[in-house]
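Fold it.
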Amino acid sequence: GRRQTTGVRTVAIDRRQLARHIRTVGIIAPDERLVRHIHTKVSGWIQELSVSFTGQEGKAGDRIVSIYSPELVASQSEYLLALEAFGAGNAAPGLDERERRRLLDAARRRLERFDVAPSHIDELERTRDPKRRIVLHSPIAGYVTFKSVQQGMYVTPEMELYTVADLDRVWIWADVNEDEIPLVALGQRARIEVASAPGERTGTVA
């Protein structure tokens, strides 16, 4: 009776694995390796928003925004002038074939540095009609977690236009007490419960 009231329990001596469970809380955040910040490499005005609100989902390669850029129009015009002056079959006094090709390639690389797709440059060579707008596409599939632009807004290369995050895999920043840190190691498994989404999930200490 005394043993029962004091809560003493006895068992036979045995070999077993001793384990300590750490129960804590954490914050769900995007995996930083699956986040992309979208900028433009030319200055200009927003002409069309294909992604118009934060939280919108999209696929890799989807149109995000189109920008009218006088700088881009000027670069295309320079490339067309270079084609006329140094293109195949055009005589350029004082320049050999190698020098003509070098000048033409330099004009093309300027367009490529503005993220103009090779297919658009080929179309420019065929039509000789400069495009007024550049279209930005999403580099990954995911959700828009940040949007700073509106229709008609003037944008520059240093501005962050959008942030896109792939949320199929996320991080959980878990708070671990200092005295428990030695018990945590890379590769350990964790069981995760989310109040707003019933059911147990698993993760790995990274």
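The two ends are 50 Å apart (CA to CA).
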